[in-house]
């Protein structure tokens, strides 16, 4: 009888007793990730505020940077050079360069190079870039 009294009790938990895994929409993920980019060292604080694990937010941030999260592409810089009549223009001579004579050479991440006039409309350039580099 003494063995029965000193024996620890076992509690059986079923799957219905626990909290189920939450599902986050892409809009919620984007909102949380963009919030985490504001300020300095905000990953942990943002994760804590939304009740998620810091590593999950880090994964979402990596997916956001790679363009895998949602439909938006993160903003990034592309190498750019301005030329005038086939020669490299100096920064001081750029202001005297008429837009019709200047060209912009864009080196894309996929290895392609695109040369456009300096006066190209941004909307037209965006349409061309979407076709040339859809990633």
Layout of SSEs?
Layout (H helix, E strand, L loop, with lengths): L1 H5 L19 H11 L6 H8 L3 H12 L14 E5 L2 E2 L13 E6 L5 E5 L4 H11 L3
Antiparallel strand pairs: 1-2, 1-3, 3-4
Helix pairs in contact: 2-4, 3-4
Explain how this protein is built.
The chain is α+β, with helices and mostly antiparallel strands and 135 residues long. Among the domains are: 26-65; 80-132, no CATH class. Helix content is 35%, strand content 13%. The chain has helices at 2-6, 26-36, 43-50, 54-65, 122-132; strands spanning 80-84, 87-88, 102-107, 113-117. A four-stranded antiparallel beta sheet has the order 2-1-3-4, with no helix packed on it. Strand 3 (102-107) and strand 4 (113-117) form a beta hairpin. Helix 2 packs across helix 4 and helix 3 (43-50) packs across helix 4 (54-65). The longest helix is centred in the middle third of the chain and has 12 residues, at 54-65. 7% of the residues are buried. Residues 87-94 have low confidence and may be disordered.
Report the count of strand segments: 4
DSSP strand (E) fraction? 5-15%
Cα distance spanning the termini: 72 Å
Number of helical elements: 5
Helix content: 25-40%
Name the shape in a single word. Answer: rod-shaped
What gyration radius follows from the Cα positions, in whole Å?
A: 27 Å
In the predicted model, the low-confidence regions spanning at least 5 consecutive residues are 87-94
Can you list the strand order of the major beta sheet?
Answer: 2-1-3-4
- Whole-number mean pLDDT: 75
Taking the sheet with the most strands, its summary is: 4 strands, antiparallel
The helix/strand series, from N terminus to C terminus, equals HHHHEEEEH
Structural class: alpha+beta
